[in-house]
Amino acid sequence: MAKKFELNEVEVWDGNYATSQALRQAQVDVVAAYPITPSTPIVEGYGAYKANGYVDGEFVMVESEHGAMSGCVGAAAAGGRVATATSSQGFALMTEVLYQASGMRLPIVLCVVNRSLASPLNVRGDHSDMYLGRDSGWINIDAFNAQEAYDLPLCAFKIGEHLDVRLPVMVHQDGFTTSHKAQNVRPLQDEVAYKFVGDYVPVDDMLDFSRPVTHGAQTEEDWHFEHKAKQHKALMDSTKVIDEVFKKFKDLTGREYKRVETYYMDDAEVAIVALGSSVETATLAAKQLREEEGIKAGVVAPRVFRPFPYDLIRDALDKESLKAVCCMDKSAPGGAMGALFNEVSAAAYTTQSRPMITNYIYGLGGRDFSIDEAKRIFKEQKAHADAGHITTPIQQFSGVRGPKLGFFETKRGN
Amino acid sequence: MSRGVLATEKRGVRELGAEEKVGWDAVPQGVVLNSFDNILKENVSHVKPEDRDYSDFNSYTATVASWRVIKPVYNRDICIDCQNCWVWCPDTSIISRDKQMLGIDYDHCKGCGVCVEVCPTNPKSLLMFGEAQELEDALAMWPEKKKKAK
Fold it and tell me: How far apart are CA A77 and CA A104, in angstroms?
């Protein structure tokens, strides 16, 4: 029986440590992991809990991240609660197996500490790895600070393992900005946290010898499509359970999470849509701009990136006051608009007001995103609003040195 | 055409891929295939395959005989029951009981010839013949023991 961990009402934890504590409290059966910056302290911390008697489950050291996720798939198919953590190149190496996990409907929790992808090699935070996995069929939840990096993995087990969902869940946090920044965190006591997560309920577990099953079957053109359709429906329908779990978490802790977070949006004329720790930067900028210059700025942040909350984004943007929206993508777009721009535009197209939407690529490889830069972007949106059309290229780069970069123009101005 | 030893009314009774094509709402979650419709009361590893009540989702009930163009024929008179073929067969299509070789499961054998390759007897106790060759005729044309070349 694992030892109880003494916790204060308020602890000073960074995002990695907060996540490792959440994994410990969820009483995970198997963690199969391979270390990579900046996520290493999550599994390092978990290994220390194991070595010191705070964990009953197994820790499996593997030869690579492909092996880590493969071990997780095997352990989950066998019938255990399973989790791991990774970043960047490790995430890229896991990608093949991510699709296996979701297709096999195994509710693994993967804690992703977001970091850029080489080349050039870089260990700092951007959302390249998050975007790489966005079509892999996992639920994607984003933590913006250390408290959330503790809260959301607890919710992730409860969401993914719900019998109406049975899908793997990623919980993202920004590399270094969140993962290595010590902040006040209010943890739950061990028994309270475990009671919230609940006992694992196995489904089609291979260790149930009274019901022998085959996992990982091959399907060709006669069956594959139906299985993928069923999987997609499960992912789209998981929103109901996500909302329920967030509500239960609020009832327990007072901390409220929504699939889309909004700040100062009631009367906003201009808005930024962003993910991760930049949400807090943009929110501060909006607050200051309102006080200093009377610009009605607001912020919209998809807490759940997959399934993408088209409904709640539409509701957040469907306001007569709202004229211009900037979607901030922290990933090299590779020959397209940023993913957030594409998704948000699709949602906004269904609104009555149809605000103007632009796209900024920013923060690549850990380039700092400042409050002043967020203010400048808000003001640029205000200029679009005053002109009645987008006055810049639709896609621009924020914070890059050299001549201005911009792509794609609107035709609505002429 | 022979279906081989220990064929039952469950084994290889449907062509693989001839299942009823149900819609997305009726396929099993996670592409999980249950080998049995019922909850088992005893350890199934203690029950011989021909005595198991397999579901239609177990490959036991499917046949892939049509994939084969050549087949192994087994000659009991030469076999020494070494079990090499049983060990090496990639499709569990060599049937052996109590370490005595019984023959081939022609519902699942794909005709790869590995069993012939690994057979150590002289002449071999398993040889490949055309799929249409009758077993009796194949046995009648079995080669003689080869003398060692000096």
Answer: 8
Do the Cβ atoms of A226 and B34 come within 8 Å?
no
Residue-wise pLDDT for B89-106, tens only, equals: 999 999 999 999 999 999
For A226, the 3-state DSSP assignment is helix
Distance CA(B105)–CA(A379), nearest Å, equals: 77
- Contacts of residue B8, Cβ cutoff 8 Å, sequence gap at least 6: B50
Least Cα distance to A31 among A61, A1, A3, A59 occurs for A59
E-strand ranges in A264-376 read: 270-273, 297-302, 304-306, 324-329, 356-362
User: Which CATH number is A11-253 given?
Assistant: 3.40.50.970
- Contact between A212 and B36 using a beta-carbon 8 Å cutoff: yes
| Closest listed residue to residue A168, CA positions, set A235, A114, A119, A123 | A235
The 10 Å Cβ neighbour count of residue B141 is 10
The SS3 assignment for B51 reads helix
Q: Where are the domains of chain B?
A: 14-140
Q: Which of B21, B29, B36 sits opposite A166 (nearest CB)?
A: B29
3-class secondary-structure state, position A362:
strand
The model's pTM is 0.94
Q: Is the ipTM of this complex over 0.95?
A: no
Residue intervals of chain A classified under CATH 3.40.50.970 are 11-253
- The DSSP symbol for B59 reads G
State the nearest Cα–Cα gap between A100 and chain B, in angstroms.
10
DSSP string, A7-76: --SSEEE-HHHHHHHHHHHTT-SEEEE---TTTHHHHHHHHHHHHTTS--SEEEE-SSHHHHHHHHHHHH
Instruction: Answer yes or no: CATH 3.40.50.920 is held by domain A260-407.
Output: yes
For an interface test with A, give the residue of B15, B21, B29, B64 to mutate (most A CBs within 10 A): B29
2.40.320.10, 3.30.70.20, 3.75.10.10, 3.40.190.10: which CATH number matches B14-140? 3.30.70.20
Cα B81 from Cα B83, distance rounded (Å): 5
User: Tens digit of pLDDT for each residue in A100-131?
Assistant: 999 999 999 999 999 999 999 999 999 999 99
Q: Whole-angstrom Cα distance, residue A190 to residue B138?
A: 72
The first and second tokens of residue A187, run together, are: 């943890």
> With contact defined as beta carbons under 8 Å apart, do A193 and A26 qualify?
yes
